[in-house]
Amino acid sequence: MKNVVVLLFSCMLVFGVGVCSGGSLRKNFYKKTCPKAEETVRNFIWGQLSNGNNSALPAKLLRMHFHDCFVRGCDASILLNSTSNSTAEKDAGPNQSLTGFDILDRLKALIESQCLNTVSCADILALAARDAVSFQYKQSLWEVLTGRRDGNVSLASEVGPNIPSPASNLTVLRQNFANKKLTEKDLVVLSGAHTIGVAHCGTFNRRLYNFTRKGDADPQLNPMYADFLRTKCKSLTDTNTPVEMDPGSSSFFSSHYYLILQQHMGLFQSDAALLTDEDSGRIANELMDKETFFEEFQSSIMKMGAIGVLNENEGEIRKICSMANS
To answer: Can you tell me the distance from the alpha carbon of 3 to that of 211, in angstroms, rounded to the nearest whole number?
Structure first.
């Protein structure tokens, strides 16, 4: 692991410059205006994880960061509550299983007590996701450039067309990522985030019981694994039972996902889709190497974290992450 950390930090400057050149993000954005902001985020998130009672937090925040950036860009629109006039992103179907909003609300209030109207919710979410995933290694696994602004629009209707579906094939996934200026390699690399967390049966149980609507199972799914999953998800009507996305490694961020992928134990149809093409399959095979995965994940998630970033004269710095400023 020591070699992995050294490799990560040796690559940070290279990848950081690449991301920064495309927008308003930079290192140490709050150095003068709120110098302890990043330290506060890390200490708060690590404090939440240190007692062992919130082990699911890394997966929750990483998923939330992804779902935020893929709709309207990384502007914390995922954190806004619905209003009487508009249904927000967080209440759209694909986002209704997201949790961890309370943690970010508490973190924002803490930072506001130190630096009023200074640190954006979008930056807090990006930092918190990185710090939560990094906790197990006690080192930052990727650089988070800061300077994001918060959006004030959040529409549930925009979620479906933008968030990749777990039932998508490779053609759809490629286009979904290309729409965000992300490559096929980014797609395969960021799918590695499925190494942590759980999914509910409703997101994949058609693969077990009715794949072609003839009462059959997905032939791409390892038969023994399918049998195991059927002990968890009893029927098509069982939509809420949680299942580990990466069996045996769902609370440990690693390259293990690519090992189970090669064994045809990827939980989602979108996971299995990565092996349906020679190029994406080759990338997935290379990512079984831990150092390669960590290096590539750092690059890809930094690119993702720069999607649609609002510039200095756009958006706002929300006082409360769940509501736009009045």
So the answer is: 43
